[in-house]
Amino acid sequence: MIFEARFRELAGVRLYWSNAFAVTGLPTHADGETVDRHREDAEAKLRRGHGCWAAPRPSGSTTVPNDAEQVRAAFAELADPKRRLMDEALWYWGTDNLDCGCPEDLHREHDAAVRRHLWALESAQGGDPFPGANREVMWLGAARGWHAVLENDHFAAHLRHRIRTLDTPELGEEAAEDLLAGLPPLLVTPFSELAHGDAFLARMAAEWGRCASFEGSVHKLGEVLFAPSADRIGDALRIAKEHREAGRYEESAAALWQQVLPELELLDPVRPLVPAERYDEVALMVAVGLNNLAVDLRESYVHRAPDAGERWEMVELARKAHDVAPQRDEQQFLDNWDRLVRQFGHGRRARAYANPRGLSAQTLGKDPRREQWRRAAARIRSAIRFLRTPLGTRISLSVVAVALVITLAATLGGAYPAVSLGLVLSVILAALLTERRDGAGQEAGRAGRTGHAGQAGRTGS
């Protein structure tokens, strides 16, 4: 590609600031004579002791001073037809010169796309071109604006006109097609510096990928951002597996908690930039590693019972395996987690831990209000079970006797509300005692059918 060198120089967040027209302040349609005259003026100012040159910018854009070396380099870029054409495509065209034959609307749309993208990049780097402006609107406006320009046949016609105007053997008609092919990946290169670790900008990059012009470029960018962390996760999982298989469980756990999981969290912002199955593949590997360590820890406690900390770690490993697992695989990890909870306890504590994907409230159906009702119902059931014990029966009979005495006394005294309360209490306790006798046989039957919870299963290798 004839523009490859200039592509590399402009790529990144300085896409517009490094533009030769941005540095010199010249219009993109300036002819050779105008460029020479402007260069002489700039050199004269620099010789008079001005250490830098700040070209005027369109309204709303930050004026960036450039030193003498940058200014001279920019004028040198304009002397190279290939570099000049590239910079023309990425700066303001204006509507005061329409010799190209383009519709005026194309120039307006092109300049609006440049302006929005420039503002968005300024805001992403701490600038505030328009206080209170919506950043998302800037980014989406830039994406849709550039997509509309790139898809407009008049844009290619404009580039071909500029090639003819520059009239140099270095640029043939095919140069327009090369430039059109190279612009989409160039326009998304700022995300390679901005999107890693920034969930908002990663989401904006994904939104750019929804435009057909940028879809392929964004997918490639996503893999570039995703692959290094995915590779580090794979390496750390292999180390954790080696430790686990050698019985070095503490070292295995350290690799998972200190290397694998933090690296997986770093991938979360760039998830929108890669296919879902790409992320799920890595997440499943992590879930399997966590789950298998939990199972091996359980099986290692043959000659002694684990202490509270060891029980907690097993349950936490299983819980975390469930949390990071892809949705399609959640159930098997949930089953293993529940088996460990039933065997070692810590169920309430384990489920109370927050998890990064909110599964305790959504996937597991743990709505807070439903949880409150569930706990209340559990307390009532515990009270009923107590009333069915011999001690509970004696206490219940005593309460019934007291209630009957209160009822009789209240009846003789004319206290009708108290009579009603006493009668109701007596009926309830009598019903509970009756249920105790009826339920004794059922409890015995259930005890005969209930086996061990079973051991948690190992998943994968």
Notes on the structure:
This protein is an all-alpha fold and 461 residues long. The protein folds into 3 domains: 4-213, no CATH class; 221-352; 382-439. The chain has 20 helices and 2 strands. It has helices at 4-10, 20-24, 32-47, 68-78, 81-89, 104-124, 135-150, 153-166, 174-188, 190-194, 199-209, 215-245, 249-267, 276-300, 308-324, 330-344, 347-352, 368-387, 390-413, 416-449, and strands spanning 52-53, 66-67. The protein has a two-stranded antiparallel ribbon. Helix 13 (249-267) packs antiparallel against helix 14 and helix 19 (390-413) runs antiparallel to helix 20 (416-449). The protein is elongated, with a radius of gyration of 36 Å. Mean pLDDT is 79; it is low at 347-369 and 435-456.
Number of strands: 2
Order of helices and strands: HHHEEHHHHHHHHHHHHHHHHH
What portion of residues is helical? 55-70%
| Average pLDDT reading | 79
* Shape type: elongated
Q: How far apart lie the N and C ends?
A: 47 Å
Strand content: under 5%
Task: Describe how the helices and strands are arranged.
Elements: H1 4-10, H2 20-24, H3 32-47, E1 52-53, E2 66-67, H4 68-78, H5 81-89, H6 104-124, H7 135-150, H8 153-166, H9 174-188, H10 190-194, H11 199-209, H12 215-245, H13 249-267, H14 276-300, H15 308-324, H16 330-344, H17 347-352, H18 368-387, H19 390-413, H20 416-449
Summary, kept brief:
By secondary structure, the protein is an all-alpha fold.
